[in-house]
Amino acid sequence: VYSDAPVYFVTACTWKRRALLAADDVKTAVDAFGEAGPTRGAWLGSYVLMPDHLHSFVALDAAQCPLSQWMKALKACVAKVLHERGVSGPVWQKGFFDHVLRSGEFASDKWAYVRENPVRGGLVQAAGGWLFW
Prior knowledge:
Number of helices: 4
Low-confidence stretches: none
Strand order of the largest sheet: 2-3-1-4
């Protein structure tokens, strides 16, 4: 386990699985959120925006930025963009799934799963064709 800055695999779903996330404005917001993270002790790694959920990898300095705080801020960032677009009601389901990555091999297995998610979902024929990662 990476004790100083554990790496988490995180999944969060939209409210009632609404297809809201696979969009340029959301990707731009997530990219900007990730770029600003190191100043707060958070390093966003690879991620995939599916229409109704997000898979991401994040390393956190838990003393500076607990996972629950990071997820709350990420969800708020995306919700703000969607509300500006006119999306009403809750954007996100409460809570999220997380798992601490325990080795480089496990991380590569998880990334292979995440990378192929748009293919399994029938959204593209090859993972490289998905624009929202």
